[in-house]
Structure formats: C-alpha cells, structure tokens
Amino acid sequence: MDNHPADKKIDYRLQGKLVGHAGAIFALSVREDGKFAASGGTDGTKVWDLTTFHSIAEVPAAPDIRGATTCLKWIKRDDDVSEAMVYGSQTGYLVCWQQDDMRTKDGKTARFKEIWCRQLNDPSEITGIAFDESTNRLAVCHLGGVFQIYSLSAKMVLKEVLSKKIAKCTPAAIAFGEIHGNERELLIFGVHCGLVYTVRGLEVSTAAEAWNLGCKISAVAVDHSKGIMCIDDPSTGVHLYRLNGAERELLNSFPVCVKKRRRVRQVALADAGRVIVSSSDHGTVYVRSRRAGNLLAKLQVDTDEFVQTVTASDIAGIPTIFAAKSCDMSGSNDIFVYLQTTKTTHRFVEKIGAMCTSLVWYIVVFAAMAFVYDNWGI
User: What residue intervals traverse the membrane (predicted)?
Assistant: First the structure.
C-alpha cells in the first residue's frame, strides 16, 4: 500500500550534519546504494561518505571558470555495477566524476576522478540533468533554452544524439517520463511559461502541443513506479500530477507559506513515493503524506534563512531527508540529515525500557529476600 498505516505516526529526527561547505548549496543527490552523497554550490562540488559523515578528500579540483555547481545526479548504466556522478555548472559545463579507489597499506581509500568535461551549446547555467538507465541516455538543459541528449557508452563516453533550442522557454528542469515505443519520452519544464514540452525520438512538441500546467515551475520530482510527478510553484506551493496515461491530471495541491518573498524551491519524493518533501523561504522543510495530504513533520533547518535545496533517499532501508540553506552567505553551510522514525518504533523502545525497569525491581527484591534469609535464618 502507498499510505502509511493509521496507527503509525511518521516523524523525523536529526541524524547529523555534513559539514564542510562555504556559501550557498544549490544541489544534493544520494547514490542509489546509500554509501555516498554529492552536493554542490558556490564553492564547487563535494562527495560525502555517509557511513562517517565526512567529505571525501580525494576529489578533482574545480577550475574557477566553471563557476558554481548548480545541479548534479548519480547515474548508472543498466549493464554496470558502479555509479558515476554528473554535475552541471553556472557557466554551462557538464562534468562527470567516477569512483577510483586508492589502495593503501590500511586498505582502500575512497577517491573520485574526473573522466570528462564538456561545455553545452550556447552555454548558460545548467538547470537540469536526467538519466534513463534502460536506454543509457543522459539529458541536460540550461537557462538559454537549450536541451541536449547524449548516449552513454560502456566506457562512459558521451555521444551527442540531439541538441535543440526551444523558443521562448527557460527550462527549470528536465526528466524522463512514461515509455512510448522502445524508450521513455523526455519532459522539459519551462519555469515562466508553465509549459511541459515532450521529446519523443527526435521530435519536440510545439508550444501549442505542450502540456500547460498553468503555473510557474521551479522544480520537479518524478516517480515512475507510482506514475506521479510533483512540481513546485513558487507562488502557491506543491502540485501533484498523474503522469501515466493519456489523461494527465492534477491530483492534489499543497500550499507552502511564503513569509519573505517568492523564490525558487526544490521538491522531493521520499519513502517510496509515499511522502512529499518541500523547502521554503523561512528555514522550514515540510514533510507531507502524498495520499492523505496531511503534514507529517516540519524540519527546522534554520530559524529564518532560505532553504531551497532538498533531496531524499533510503539509507539502509530507512527513509532519509537531506536539506541545506541556499541563501547568499559567506560562512559555513551545513547539510542536515534526517532519519524517519515511527510511533511503532517509539512504542517498541518504551516497552523495552519498561521491561528493563521491571527486571531491575525483580532483581532488587530477590536480593533483599536472599539477604534476609542469610542473615536472619528465615
């Protein structure tokens, strides 16, 4: 079932922080196996070991010419066991890192190497990266209205398949949609126009054919297994859509309070698509049930600052939320990591505590009786 059992109260606790960024953080992504996370912002790209919560020291240096890291994604070919991390930059560079562990006398030390870097056509800030594992296609878009599709070989070599510019469109995000024929369609989301352009094969829908959502689009999260899509509209909140089938429809809307001013926010689907995670302009991350729509938790990352950047993943089977501040800042900026807990878990702990307390009392009473018996000859 998609919904949580009624007798469970979903909550999240702060597990720890990833400390090491300076300045705004714009992008977060967690590797499928839950071992590593990647983050990017004004000070470049970092990779984190999620068993130690420390950053990986051995990563490539990012030249200043690339600018801030604006988006990133872990990718894995269907015939490969390892994953690579691809990030996009403020000046239109697309870069790929791959794990290349170093052997030492104490064992293996995790490190990453850069395997390719290229600048997109008519370069501008990269706003979206998507990967389709079934066809090994990598898609990317930038603020200049250009999107490009590449095929990715077994040796992680890129080959351009399609590059086009959509007139009067500023792409906010890009994602693979439902399957048509032998491959998934590609969806390109316009931030100001509210249009979703569809790419099937080498054909791109026109503005008249595009799916009109009737709102601004700042971020997108897609769950193919559930056939759903979440988008964030900076002026109203989060909207949930049915993605599969001919009738793409609005299923629900969840308002997000604006306390300062309307800004781009990110959205994520957590806990196998059961939970919607949205950011805010006032330091709070909102966690809602996708089915019921009720607020499950409010995660206070900061008391006042803009929290734009969120992502979610399962770590060792436990739904986990990552959140970071994206405001203009010069000092340290931590990534907050929250683990899901449930009322059932709390009850189990309480029962164990009660059992331990009873056991202690039994031991004390037995010891007292033994003392009386030994000393008073009863």
Answer: 352-373
Distance of alpha carbon 5 from the chain centroid: 25
**Edge-to-edge order in the sheet of strand 309-315:** 10-22, 332-342, 318-324, 309-315
Query: Are 296 and 11 in contact, with CB atoms under 8 Å apart?
Result: yes
At residue 6, the pLDDT reads 41
Looking at this protein, which amino acid is placed at residue 46?
K
Rounded Cα distance between 100 and 310, Å, is: 27
Q: Give the span between the Cα atoms of 147 and 209, in whole angstroms.
A: 18
Can you say whether residue 208 is alpha, beta or left, with left for phi > 0 and alpha for psi between -120 and 50 degrees?
alpha
Residues 87 and 95: their CA atoms lie apart, in Å, by 5
End-to-end Cα distance, the chain: 62
Pairing of strands 107-109, 102-104: antiparallel
Residue ranges of the alpha helices (H) in 85-232? none
Q: Exposed/middle/buried for 322, CB within 10 Å: 0-12, 13-18, 19+?
A: buried
User: 328 CB contacts (<8 Å, ≥6 apart)?
Assistant: 24
Residue whose token pair is 């009873």: 358
Spacing of C-alpha 285 from chain mean position: 13
Q: Which amino acid is at 326?
A: S
Asked if 146 and 122 count as a contact pair (C-beta separation under 8 A), the reply is: yes
**Residue 251 carries which DSSP code?**
E
CA torsion 200-201-207-211 (nearest 10°) is: 10
